[in-house]
Design brief:
Helix content is 24%, strand content 27%. With 323 residues, it is an alpha/beta fold. The chain has two domains: 180 residues, FAD/NAD(P)-binding domain (3-Layer(bba) Sandwich); 107 residues, FAD/NAD(P)-binding domain, CATH 3.50.50. Helix 1 runs parallel beside helix 7.
Length: 323
């Protein structure tokens, strides 16, 4: 039976935040500080950083976990509970009518706000090769912290050459007997400190890097048994692996922003200015979904703070009593 849509009252909230990761929580915290009636909507509490085992580059925390960091950000936001509400609902669409924004969720509920901050983050990019979909969660994975323990004593490969790929490989050495990093480029490109750590593990025989190579197919029976490479490695394009972790970047979750008319760049990232404003008045964005070049938890949080301040100025200086 189709769920009946619950209509919203106009101007129900000052700010609607879409996304419950670091940027979303930071936006909620600052919106609460500005005494703005705030609603945060998100279906993945904590966002992708929850899957990060060790965080060493967030100022003020020499070392923490992704889960601990997002929990602290969420708790800080909820310290302003008189102004901030959070609901675990996925926003299906947003629209703007008569100067007011309306957000509709999968549950059929509709919420309205004077402003909207989009902090929807990214989704993992796929290899799009034969066998990837067939063996998903049967040897094909994207999260070492989640699925690494299931491959204890096995031989696994990490496809990718970024800092994230390097960290996935290092974490996998806790369980796997050998980890191969398979990268299409000349040289992997993690942060210098992590590059050194990878080289140290390589000297110990825990990690081996295969450069200038692509995975063309993932093979298996009930689970992954190996991959086909685009060039021979040690005399063969067939390469035995018990698991494959895909770490080749991410795609912005910007579809709803595009549909409402927000400007997107060629990568489909939301274009913002230094105040986190989009080309639509009252619509802001922050975090990995934006066109900022350097994507980190701390930069996303900074953009979220700017977005909250911009929303506050828009509401107060333009004297928006209701929409």
């Amino acid at each position: 039976m189709k769920q009946r849509k619950q209509k919203a009252k106009k101007g129900e909230y000052d700010v609607i935040i879409i996304g419950s990761g670091c940027a979303g929580y930071a936006a909620a915290m600052y919106s609460g500080r500005f005494n703005l009636k705030t609603l945060l909507l998100g279906d993945n509490a904590g966002g992708k950083i929850n899957l990060t085992n060790v965080v060493e580059n967030y100022p003020g925390f020499i070392r923490t976990t992704g889960t601990e960091l997002t929990e602290k950000l969420r708790n800080h936001a909820m310290d302003y509970k008189n102004f901030v509400k959070m609901k675990q609902e996925r926003v299906a669409s947003i629209k703007k009518m008569g100067g007011c924004f309306f957000a509709e969720t999968d549950e059929g509920r509709e919420y309205s706000g004077k402003t909207v901050i989009i902090a929807t983050g990214t989704r993992d990019r796929k290899l799009n090769v034969p066998g990837e979909k067939e063996f998903e969660k049967k040897g094909v994975h994207s999260c070492a912290l989640c699925d690494g323990p299931f491959l204890k004593g096995k031989t696994v490969g990490v496809v990718g050459g970024s800092d994230s790929a390097a960290k996935e490989a290092m974490l996998l050495t806790q369980w796997a007997k050998k980890v191969y990093i398979i990268y299409r480029g000349e040289k992997i490109r993690p942060e210098p400190i992590n590059f050194q750590r990878v080289k140290d593990l390589a000297r110990k025989g825990k990690i081996e890097i295969i450069n200038n190579t692509n995975v063309k197919e993932i093979k298996g029976d009930k689970t992954v048994t190996g991959v086909i490479l685009d060039r021979p490695y040690k005399g063969s394009k067939k390469f035995k692996l018990d698991g494959v972790f895909i770490s080749i970047g991410a795609e912005p979750r910007s579809e709803m922003a595009g549909k409402i008319g927000a400007g997107l760049n060629e990568k489909k990232e939301i274009i913002i200015n230094k105040s986190s404003q989009t080309n639509i008045k009252g619509l802001y964005a922050a975090g990995d979904v934006t066109d900022s070049e350097f994507k980190q938890a701390i930069t996303g949080v900074a953009e979220a703070v700017a977005a909250s301040y911009s929303a506050y100025r828009h509401i107060t200086e333009d004297k928006i009593v209701t929409c």
